[in-house]
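Teaching assistant here, posting this on the class forum so everyone can see the example we discussed in section. The complex has two components, and the goal was to see what a joint structure prediction looks like when all of them are supplied at once.
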Amino acid sequence: MTQSRHPSESWVLSRVGALLKAIPAFAGMTLLALTLAMPLAAQDSMPPAPYAYRQLDDPAQEAAAQELMETLRCLKCQSQSIADSDAPMAGDMRHQVRIRIAAGEDPEAVRGWLMQRYGDYVSYKPEVSATTWPLFAIPVLLVLLAGGILLSRFRRRG
Amino acid sequence: MSWRLWVPLFVFALFLGLAAYQLTQPKDEFIESRMVGEELPYFDLPPATDGVEGVSNATFADGKPRLLNIWASWCLPCIAEAPHLESLKQQGVEIVGVAIRDRPEDVARFLAQHGNPYSRIGRDDLSEVQLAIGSSGVPETFVIDGKGAIRYQHIGDIRAEDVPVLLEKLAEAGE
């Protein structure tokens, strides 16, 4: 009688077995649900724009485009440049930048074209202007102030 | 004890207060188009699917104010705004659509499922029109006057309370 088990024990084992058998079915259903949900995901399935990931043939133009793309802000992802972002819209913006540079446009003209549409937001290049000058002035003032205080203290003690 | 000892603590409290105040302010993530008030730039888009007409900037230059709806079949809020676009259409508004990075079969499926409030739908595979008019996402809706100038921008999906606002802006654009 060593093989017979307590009835409740065999019940538990049969439940565990059923549960184990159910796992692949459950996983399958989850996968199916995910697949069905795919077309609803808020991202398109189109291939990237021709020049989203392809470099320009002329190395000088590509360098100019790259430099510009690093100082343009992704509209979908605030803290990334369009050079760093894989968002489809950033790809479309890189395409615009590359074809405009390839057509001989000046990089600053391309930046101007985008700023005309999206304002300062789209530019990632630090610039001293009527609204941003305190950002540059305050640290300088603080360093001068700290230096002044230190100097006066050293003089007093020395 | 000198009063000056309290100055750093006071400055720190001021900083803390400012940070706490900013935390309670709602976050504004909308990037407004600077093209409001400007003319639509030149564009010419092919139809987004079979049985619809394409869109160009010339579409808007016949004297009648219209809505320009930037949308996509892969965009969830676009499903939410579909009934409100339908209600605008019922009230006599002409809505011109531009489908962003979309496949013709997906556009057709979306229209079959959620209705077609559009008089024309252009196909913008490279977000060119979107970038040209300063739109930064889907859905966005622009009020265009009869001369083809952008008069108003609505960012995000159109909700029931936005319908009267858009009707008013269209009426203003028609004056």
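For the discussion questions: Chain A is about 60% helix and 0% strand. Chain A has two domains: 7-40, 50-152. Think about how each of these relates to the inputs above.
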